[in-house]
Amino acid sequence: MLSAPAIRNWYGVHKWTSLICTLFLLMLCITGLPLIFYHEIDHATGNSVDPPELPGVTSTASLDRIVEAARAKRPDDAVQFVSRDPEEPNAWFVSMGETPNAPLASAFYTFDARTGDFLHEYPLNQGVMNFLFRLHYDMFAGLPGTLFLGFMGLLLAASLVSGAVVYGPFMRKLPFGSVRRERSARIKWLDLHNLLGIATLIWLFTVGLTGVINTLALPIFGHWQNTELADMTAQYKNQPPLAKFSSPEQAVAAALAAAPGTELSFMAFPGNEYATPHHYVAFMHGSTPLTSRLLRPVLIDAQTGTVIDQRNLPWYVTALLVSQPLHFGDYGGLLLKILWALLDVIAIVVLGSGVYLLVQKRNVSVEARLGLLQAEAAK
Amino acid sequence: MSGNGRVKVWTAPIVLGAVTALGLTTALVSDDVGDVLAWIALAAPIVAVLWYSWPRKRV
Fold first, then answer.
1. Element (H, E) at B46
2. Contact A170/B at CB under 8 A
3. Smallest Cβ distance to B49: which of A199, A339, A340?
4. Contacts of A175 in chain B (CB under 8 A)
5. Which of B6, B35, B40, B42 to mutate to test the interface with A (most CBs of A within 10 A)?
6. Are the CB atoms for A315 and A297 separated by under 8 Å?
7. Would you give the end-to-end CA distance of chain B in angstroms?
8. What's A246's DSSP letter?
9. FRET pair for A201, CA 20 to 30 Å: which of A94, A95, A111, B32?
10. Closest chain B C-alpha to A12 CA, distance in angstroms
11. Bridge-partner residues for A284, per DSSP?
12. What is d(CA A194, CA A171) in angstroms, rounded to the nearest whole number?
């Protein structure tokens, strides 16, 4: 059993970590609520479109022609990635940038994978959802903003651990789920804070910590690029840049042949930071629920079009890839997303009641101090 | 707190936590059965919260 000073210390940790991170976490929970349904909202508002039904059409469009069509739309830009979505098997997506390695995309096109027809251009960097996403992702402050939010997530983890530690002594004389409504509002909200917090503790912890891991995405991929990718392509380091690239369609075909049983997730074009100046890198995924989340990079020489190497991603990139669905809740259909949203609403109540309890407490102590002063004045 | 008291305080939270962890995992490793198990398991903490926090007459 914890001693009284130990309980006081753990309570101090809970109070102070919460005090620092709660407002940011409220922002994250509120902006995160609609973001759970980003995909559905994009389709409902027409930001994304499904390829049309084409009964009887079994043709496969040439990726080379699709890439040419994308280049023709923005002749001054470079193709950065081509990608696929297992849930939209009839679509090819092409991401453009002002340069091959520009950090921001300049255009995101959808093409029909059967006919090669241009279908849609996604409206980048605009709209309410994009605004909410940027608040949630980096508060419009770039990598420092993202890392700052990651630090808030670590404080949340400390707050959850210390909150769970003091839950025991607080609930010693109460059955689980007690909500004492007949006494003060403060007692009622303390009981609700304890009940909602402890019931959703593991979910809060999971979404919090996977969120922290997601804030490290750029450094994690950067480390992979500087170590493994650089190591795989060391022999090309001093070669002059390529004037012309081999066919992207052949590159994808070579990657599929080299990694049997996989599908293309996305392929980075030469010059992009997920590739090298001399290579395409095709990121392949498996077909089981778990391996569909994992990626296997295949390097293709962009001069000869042949596969030169493939490796599994190191554990730290795998940890990032597995933590993404656990943060987004997008891996069990619409019903899982709805449960995610309900749990998020509970999290908002836990945070809100925590703020209320801190503010109320201060009022109580101020009143107590006033009472003391009056008593002294009356002497 | 006696050993018994500690068991009483922590039984429900540990059960809810284990069920939540199970639900978070099953949808990740299996698509059909795993998704359904995840829906049931992740509904558990929500149902517990609603059940206990709903205002009702004391008996």
1. helix B32-53
2. no
3. A199
4. 8
5. B42
6. no
7. 28
8. P
9. B32
10. 21
11. A264, A296
12. 9
Instruction: Give the closest residue to A109 by CA, choosing from A131, A127, A94, A123.
Output: A94
Q: What is the pLDDT of residue B55?
A: 84
Q: Where are the domains of chain A?
A: 4-40+130-214+347-378
Q: Exposed, middle or buried, A339 (CB in 10 Å: 0-12/13-18/19+)? A: buried
pLDDT means per 10 residues, chain A with 379 residues, are 88 95 98 97 93 90 97 97 94 97 94 96 94 97 97 98 94 91 90 97 98 96 93 87 91 96 96 93 93 94 94 94 96 97 98 93 56 53
DSSP bridge partners of A92: A111
**CB contacts, 8 Å: B21 with chain A:** 202, 206
Q: Report d(CA A340, CA B38) in Å as an integer.
A: 11
Which of B16, B24, B32, B50 would best serve as a mutation to test chain A binding (most A beta carbons within 10 A)? B24
pLDDT at A20: 96
Q: Are A92 and A61 in contact (CB under 8 A)?
A: yes
Side chain identity at residue A52, one-letter code: P
* A333 Cβ under 8 Å from any chain B Cβ: yes
**Alpha-helix residue ranges (DSSP H) falling in chain A:** 4-35, 38-44, 63-73, 128-137, 142-170, 185-199, 201-215, 217-224, 230-232, 248-258, 315-328, 333-378
pLDDT at B31: 86
SS3 A303: coil
Residues paired with A121 in a beta bridge: A109
Say how far apart CA A294 and CA A280 lie, in whole Å. Answer: 19
Could you say which residues from 285 to 324 on chain A have a Cβ atom under 8 Å away from some Cβ of chain B?
289-290, 293, 322
Distance CA A267, CA A283 (A): 6
How far apart are the two ends of chain A, measured CA to CA in Å?
43
Is the CB of B9 less than 8 angstroms away from the CB of A171? yes
Closest-CA residue of chain A to B55? A181
What interhelical angle do A142-170 and A4-35 show, nearest 10?
A: 130
